[in-house]
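Please, does this match?
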Amino acid sequence: MPLNLASIRAAIPGREIHWHDSISSTMYEAVRLANAGAPNGTVVGAEEQTSGHGRYNRQWHSEKESGLYQTIILRLPVEPQHVPVVTLALGLATASAISHTAGLHVDLRWPNDALIGEKKVAGILVQLHGQAVVAGIGINVNQESFPPEVSEIATSLRIATGHPQEREPLLIALLSEIDEHTKILAEQGIDPILKMFTRASSYTLGRRVIVDEQITGTTMGLTPEGFLRMKKDDGTEHIVLAGGVRALATSH
């Protein structure tokens, strides 16, 4: 069933929302609008993406009318070096919106994945374009199954709860939580976001992980810039600036 845009616009009047039946990528269109001067909070969403992608241009499975696929344009007083912390703030917002509307506990895997159990339910992609932060957020809502290549690592709110979920309350909650968390970032700086993320994520402290399938160790918290500290198995410290972080089955 298509998204009920009228109910969303009624709940959040004044928000600029561009919603498409099908689009190659909401991110591409949001970049175009951002460059044209679209205001803070502008939303570009779609019922289906034909070329949706996450980090490293990995494809994001965008089943029609089953998920929430949107990109939000943010105009924040944030220095370029602090853009990684925006990703953390949006992860917190996404987890909170899912928890409030679906009643599920959501874990956050640094830097940009929202998990239910060990399976990914949402992903975030943040890019800086001129003076605008362009933030793509994809949430798996009503998918009943996934392609074989991702079925072992992906889940949806419907799978996790056992029943269909309404997308409209989730989008309204998501935009409200984004407003709240980016306000904290803008008014109080990055430190509160780092502390909140550390509390919300099981991956930031004392978690045995492997990075990019080659570096193993135990996480030691976040740096002041929002990067992940880890103690490698050889005893040396390593700062993870980017890369895929995965949990290891054993802990010590």
